[in-house]
């Protein structure tokens, strides 16, 4: 059969190409079968699912050939799918490539071409009819026409599928306006929609992969790419769809996805060269590399150097914000395959030596020259960066990122390393060290962590550096002073370098009292008159919560107003109230005004400089060795030594005429007022403090009516009221004094006060307050009548009051009893009534039952309890014998020595 003649209207010589192909098939049916199988294999295996990838890759090549950035449009029109592009039109060489299975006019030596007409175009063979319309001429591939042409030359060919894209026919189709080439695929209606949807899904990735195309319109949607220096943005209908960071080298592009301002690591991806291959990758970023591939563009060519593609990855990581770089560092993991494993290792090798790790100082470091402190804070990093230059920035020092950096060769450092690396450092100011300790504090949760910082340098107040916190002290409150003093007698931390962390490292916090009680200070005072020492002591005492200094610090010498140096406890503050009550020749000086101005009155008073009276304190006294007046006498008054001593000193220096003012001063001072109630101070004041020559213990308060007439009244502060006389005498001398006052006829002592005084004297004797032998008996006694007598009789029972004349009767208390009478009689050397007087009741009287109504009534009226025997007289008379004189007297009651109670129904009286 004759071959078809060439069509003179065929611009690309498709007729010649068909004749050559058909002649080959005619001469070799095997060749026909091979071409059919090859085309089917390329469609179903080699280029499956790559229809739009290959068509848009060809469009990119056309744009590059035309020297433009092209755009593509994809749409469905009934049963046709259209893919149109701008760029160089179809050429005869292109047509020959389209009709060939194994050749292509695009070699890609300059890196600008990516499509494969002869191979990749076979992805369109899914359509029974394909038209390629171009401004330079158009062609079509038609499966039906191919079957007819094959039947004409090889009628016996029995193939299910013929190589329809080996034969092209001229077409009168034209590309849509605005486009240079258009591929039209005739497909079923449902397939057309699926293909357009697939194109929309692939468009964003294809815009990244194919730089020669910057816009793809799919149906009603427009996808565009915008390239900036470090970013690529793909938009959909004018709205940002995907954003990528990008780092470029000559043959590789690395891209990192960015969403909502955060770098997002990729999961599984594939190698792209430049379009997607089937090679799985597990890297956090996308790579688009210029690498040789197999003809189906799915696998690497055996000669490809995949490790070379790692170039540029560190630059991508460097573009990421510091706190997000870690997501782009591939962690050690099982690779998805051999290519992935090689590329991962190459990337990690590049990262290990490239300078992309942000340092704490802002410079970029390579991991193999980086020190990383896991979890370091911004504050700590800022401080350590001044001395540890290769320190990683906190943004890349979280524990996960630190582990990644260590895997790339970084050195991990911890607390012990910091302490070691800082050893010998001394140039930083104290504030720097304080901030360092504060920044380290959060890394020291327990004793084990604290031990790692055992050798951390600590600035001392004396300018030296201390190794660690152990053996170092902080005086409470000094760290709050703007200009703290130098404490020379104990190693202290520089207060402005202090942080609570140091206490967890072994530093000991002591109170001002503890610091001033150290024996090292006492020794320093003995060995030195250093002004620095004086300054430190007074500055410590000036702290708001400081207590009183130990007594031995009173020897610290201060400048006096006379220019000389005085022991502090021998100085008074200017205008001190104490100076107003002391004797004129007191041994005290006055502290210089400039000393008061510098340190303040409170600090000086705590040291012992006088304002008011000074208090001596000894927590465990063992002997009377505190230089207190009459201390030995007071000490001897104790059967056992006192447990503690609080005492006001210098009481013996008070001017006798100024004791009222001195008492006011003592009572108004919070330090001395409590001491007026007991101890040495009360003991001494009651005995030796005198007002108008009378000791305080022999004076009564103006409101003390229980002693009126007996003791002179005096007005004292309420706090000093306990210094005055109480109801009972203190000792024999006190008792003698009260008896003398009772005996003084010039004193108007009420009878009740006298009886109360007698009762108090009796109680004191019974209690052993003094011995009777130590009391001076008075010449006279105070009687029931309120008068004094030198012929007293001490009443020992109530009924004696009826027989002893009031001007002689002396009551030992109310009611009088024989025991009290005996004690008082012995004390005052006076007789009792029963010793000087005999009383006999008249015989007779009615003996009555003691429980009878009359007996009970009369007993009650007489102030007696029920009796064993009762005799009732109409008028009771008794015979009284005293002083050798006998007299009769009518009385209401009498009790005989044998206990018989005589009662009178009538009235009593003397006869």
TrEMBL record:
InterPro entries: HATPase_C_sf. It comes from the Bacteria. SUPFAM superfamilies: ATPase domain of HSP90 chaperone/DNA topoisomerase II/histidine kinase. NCBIfam families: P_loop_sacsin (NF047352). This is ATP-binding region ATPase domain-containing protein. The lineage of its organism: Bacteria, Bacillati, Actinomycetota, Actinomycetes, Mycobacteriales.
């Amino acid at each position: 059969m004759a071959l078809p003649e060439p069509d003179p209207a065929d611009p690309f010589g498709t007729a010649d190409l068909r004749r050559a192909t058909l002649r080959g098939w005619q001469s070799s049916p095997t060749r026909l079968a091979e071409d059919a199988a090859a085309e089917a294999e390329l469609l179903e295996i080699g280029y499956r699912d790559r229809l739009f990838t290959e068509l848009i890759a060809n469009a990119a090549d056309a744009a590059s050939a035309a020297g433009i950035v092209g755009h593509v449009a994809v749409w469905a029109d009934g049963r046709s799918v259209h893919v149109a592009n701008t760029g160089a039109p179809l050429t005869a060489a292109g047509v020959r490539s389209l009709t060939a299975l194994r050749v292509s006019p695009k070699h890609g030596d300059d890196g600008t071409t990516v499509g494969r007409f002869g191979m990749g175009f076979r992805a369109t063979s899914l359509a029974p009819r394909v038209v390629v319309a171009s401004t330079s001429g158009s062609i079509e591939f038609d499966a039906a026409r191919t079957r007819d042409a094959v039947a004409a030359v090889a009628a016996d060919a029995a193939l299910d599928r013929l190589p329809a894209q080996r034969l092209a026919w001229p077409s009168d189709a034209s590309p849509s306006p605005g486009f240079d080439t258009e591929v039209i695929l005739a497909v079923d209606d449902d397939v057309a929609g699926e293909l357009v949807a697939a194109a929309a899904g692939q468009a964003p990735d294809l815009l990244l992969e194919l730089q020669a195309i910057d816009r793809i319109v799919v149906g009603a949607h427009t996808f565009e790419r915008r390239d900036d220096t470090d970013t690529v943005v793909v938009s959909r209908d004018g709205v940002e769809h995907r954003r990528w960071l990008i780092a470029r080298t000559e043959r590789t592009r690395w891209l990192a996805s960015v969403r909502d301002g955060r770098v997002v690591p990729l999961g599984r991806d594939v190698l792209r060269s430049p379009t997607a291959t089937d090679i799985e990758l597990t890297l956090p970023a996308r790579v688009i590399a210029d690498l040789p591939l197999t003809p189906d563009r799915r696998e690497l060519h055996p000669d490809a150097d995949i490790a070379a593609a790692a170039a540029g990855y560190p630059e991508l990581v460097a573009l990421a914000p510091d706190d997000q770089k870690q997501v782009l560092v591939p962690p050690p993991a099982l690779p998805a395959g051999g290519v992935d494993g090689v590329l991962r290792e190459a990337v990690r090798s590049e990262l290990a030596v490239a300078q992309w790790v942000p340092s704490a100082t802002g410079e970029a470091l390579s991991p193999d020259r980086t020190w990383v402190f896991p979890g370091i804070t911004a504050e700590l990093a800022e401080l350590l960066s001044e001395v540890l230059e290769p320190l990683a920035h906190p943004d890349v020092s979280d524990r996960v990122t630190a582990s990644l950096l260590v895997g790339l060769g970084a050195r991990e450092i911890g607390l012990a390393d910091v302490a070691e690396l800082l050893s010998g450092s001394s140039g930083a100011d104290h504030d720097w060290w304080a901030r360092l300790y504060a920044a380290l504090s959060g890394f020291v949760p327990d004793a084990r962590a604290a031990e790692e910082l055992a050798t951390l340098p600590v600035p001392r107040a004396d300018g030296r550096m201390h190794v660690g916190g152990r053996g170092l002290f902080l005086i409470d409150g000094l760290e709050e002073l703007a200009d703290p003093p130098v404490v020379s007698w104990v190693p202290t931390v520089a207060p402005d370098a202090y942080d609570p962390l140091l206490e967890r490292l072994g530093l000991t916090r002591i109170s001002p009292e503890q610091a001033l009680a150290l024996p090292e200070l006492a020794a320093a005072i003995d060995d030195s008159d250093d002004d620095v020492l004086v300054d430190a002591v007074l500055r410590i005492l000036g702290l708001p919560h400081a207590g009183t200094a130990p007594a031995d610090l009173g020897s610290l010498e201060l400048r006096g107003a006379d220019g000389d140096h005085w022991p502090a406890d021998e100085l008074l503050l200017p205008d001190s109230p104490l100076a107003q009550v002391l004797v004129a020749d007191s041994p005290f000086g006055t502290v210089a005004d400039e000393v008061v101005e510098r340190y303040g009155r409170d600090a000086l008073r705590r040291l012992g400089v006088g304002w008011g009276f000074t208090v001596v304190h000894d927590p465990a006294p063992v002997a009377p060795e505190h230089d207190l007046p009459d201390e030995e006498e007071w000490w001897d008054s104790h059967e056992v030594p006192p447990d503690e001593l609080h005492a006001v000193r210098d009481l013996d220096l008070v001017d006798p005429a100024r004791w009222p003012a001195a008492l006011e001063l003592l009572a108004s001072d919070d330090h001395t007022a409590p001491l007026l109630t007991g101890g040495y101070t009360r003991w001494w004041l009651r005995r030796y403090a005198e007002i108008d020559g009378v000791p305080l213990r022999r004076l009564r308060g103006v409101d003390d009516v229980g002693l009126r007439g007996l003791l002179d009244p005096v007005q004292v502060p309420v706090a000093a009221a306990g210094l005055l006389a109480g109801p009972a005498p203190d000792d024999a001398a006190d008792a003698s004094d009260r008896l003398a006052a009772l005996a003084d006829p010039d004193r108007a002592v009420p009878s009740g006060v006298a009886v109360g005084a007698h009762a108090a004297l009796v109680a004191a004797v019974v209690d052993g307050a003094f011995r009777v032998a130590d009391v001076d008996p008075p010449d006279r006694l105070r009687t029931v009548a309120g008068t004094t007598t030198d012929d007293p009789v001490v009443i020992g029972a109530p009924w004696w009051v009826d027989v002893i004349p009031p001007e002689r009767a002396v009551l030992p208390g109310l009611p009088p009893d024989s025991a009290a009478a005996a004690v008082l009689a012995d004390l005052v050397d006076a007789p009792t009534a029963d010793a000087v007087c005999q009383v006999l009741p008249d015989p007779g009287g009615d003996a009555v039952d003691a429980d009878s109504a009359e007996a009970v009534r009369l007993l009650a009226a007489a102030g007696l309890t029920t009796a064993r025997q009762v005799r009732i007289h109409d008028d009771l008379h008794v015979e009284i014998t005293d002083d050798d004189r006998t007299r009769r007297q009518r009385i209401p009651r009498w009790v005989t020595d044998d206990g018989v109670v005589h009662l009178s129904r009538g009235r009593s009286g003397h006869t």
